[in-house]
Design brief:
The protein has 466 residues and is α/β, with parallel strands linked by helices. It has helices at residues 6-23, 27-34, 70-80, 117-132, 147-150, 160-173, 177-185, 194-199, 232-241, 250-260, 286-299, 315-331, 358-372, 404-410, 415-420, 424-430; strands spanning 35-38, 41-46, 49-54, 61-66, 86-95, 105-110, 138-143, 203-209, 278-284, 303-311, 338-344, 378-385, 397-401, 434-435, 446-453.
Length: 466
């Protein structure tokens, strides 16, 4: 059986382009570029300006980090902050896979995407640190994706079990990240500006690695240091729109209704005095990583096409739309390999009981769609999370090619049934199309890479591992 050598080359290139996107979101370098030790005082670069900096002659600096990149960001900050100013110990809360020991920092592993008791205890410690901060001191907050789940601190009257059950409902419903964070902010003491409120009258500055499309600061880790424009009514609407209200724990229903009626204080709003001493710097984002994969594709001599830098929607439907876009490009002709690139965060509405994540589901759906309407060219499609973990699996996502469906059928897999059961992981595992990178230490949502090679004779290949 003749092997097609082009497919492995395309798979290699797709993996290289993806890694360029991950590297562009390196949290260690981003923090190092934003903090400056000048004459034993800390200065902080402000967004979009390396020359414009914030400095307050702070007497003490309290370091708080949370999110999937917390350890890497905290290590970088600890190396820059003048030692005599650093209040010890600081705290870094990250997912268990990314735990790394850091000098002078208490590192806590916690649950993600569902919160756990370790995260709850860490959230309480964060609140204590913030409340101990005094005027003339700085609370430096390092925020990265995943922060919402990692530091659960339920509002009065709501148990952690209630919050976990609520998070589980939202995750299974296919709710957008913005909808989920709206709810989280209204069930939490830290989120929706709560951390900034606790730290007042100390100064607060957040270095933010964004995993949210459009970089809406109040949605990243549910905005613990910034104003929140959403309301209790908005949070209730998330559940009524998804027809989930009657499935909510009673304590959550009561809290949201009391908030809507004004019996519970709203989240912090723009114009509140607490924000006079609070600022932030956006140090990394999905948009920055999309630019990096565009550059990488160009370097590898692909004709690049930006499909979307704010990709969203149901993963399997987005896959079909992307295939249609590729067909449209091919009708125009091609004189060099094409790279169709995207970044964002899709959703999956759970209908089955299988294992996978939005990226694996998109990869499988693309392969199925391409079998029904084949591209007249060799191709490889990669969809993966920049954090190295897609859903509750050990895979970053999936990387399929023009011969993946053949491998799946040879393994006796009925692909449509697996897709309907949301079980992309086991399909891609059997066809050797899982993309496994391990934890990357960063998180700026997802990247999609479709590489298309000019017309070649397709043949089956067993040589397809990245």
């Amino acid at each position: 059986m003749t092997k097609n050598k082009l497919i492995p080359d395309l798979r290699r290139d797709a993996a290289l382009i993806f890694q360029a996107g991950v590297k562009a979101a390196d949290p260690y370098l981003a923090v190092k570029q934003s903090l400056h030790n000048v004459a034993n005082q800390l200065q902080i670069s402000l967004e979009n300006s390396r020359d414009k900096r914030r400095s307050g002659g702070w007497q003490k600096i309290h370091l708080i980090a949370f999110g999937k990149a917390a350890c890497t960001m905290a290590k970088a900050a600890q190396e820059v902050i003048p030692a005599h100013l650093l209040a010890v110990p600081g705290i870094a809360v990250c997912n268990y896979e990314n735990v790394t020991a850091i000098e002078y920092i208490d590192v806590v592993g916690a649950g993600h995407p569902l919160p756990d008791m370790a995260g709850f205890a860490a959230a309480q410690r964060i609140a204590e640190i913030a409340q101990q901060a005094q005027e003339g001191e700085l609370v430096l907050v390092l925020v990265s994706g995943g922060g919402s789940a990692l530091i659960p601190y339920p509002a009065h009257g709501i148990s952690l079990a209630d919050k976990i059950a609520t998070s589980d409902l939202l995750l299974a419903s296919g709710a957008s990240i913005n909808a989920m964070n709206c709810v989280r902010k209204h069930l939490s003491r830290l989120k929706g500006g709560g951390l900034a409120k606790m730290a007042a009258p100390a100064d607060v500055h957040a270095l933010v690695l964004s995993d949210v499309l459009g970089d809406e600061l109040s949605a990243i880790a549910s905005g613990p240091t910034v104003a929140d424009a959403t309301t209790f009514s908005d949070a209730i609407k998330v559940f009524t729109d998804k027809q989930l209200w009657d499935k909510l724990p009673v304590a959550v229903q009561n809290h949201l209704q009391q908030g809507e009626q004004g019996a519970v204080s709203e989240t912090a709003k723009a114009g509140d005095d607490i924000f006079k001493h609070a600022a932030y710097t956006l140090i990394g984002s999905n948009a920055i990583s999309v630019q990096a994969i565009m550059h990488s594709a160009d370097t590898l001599n692909y004709q690049r096409h930006l499909y979307s830098d704010q990709l969203d929607g149901e993963a399997k439907e987005v896959a079909k739309d992307l295939l249609q876009y590729a067909h449209a490009l091919l009708t125009k002709g091609m004189d060099k390999p094409l790279a169709v690139l995207a970044g964002g965060e899709t959703t999956v509405t759970m209908q089955g009981k299988g294992l996978g994540g939005r990226n694996q589901e998109m990869a499988l759906a693309f392969a199925i769609a391409a079998e029904k309407k084949p591209l007249a060219a060799d191709w490889v499609f990669l969809s993966a999370g920049t954090d190295g973990r897609d859903g509750p699996t050990d895979a970053a996502g999936g990387i399929v090619d023009a011969q993946s469906i053949t491998r799946m059928h040879d393994a006796g897999i009925k692909t449509e049934q697996y897709l309907a059961n949301n079980d992309a992981y086991h399909v891609l595992q059997k066809s050797k199309d899982l993309l496994i990178t391990g934890a990357t230490g960063t998180n700026v949502a997802d990247l999609q890479i479709l590489l298309i090679q000019p017309n070649t004779k397709l043949s089956q290949s067993g040589d397809h591992n990245v």
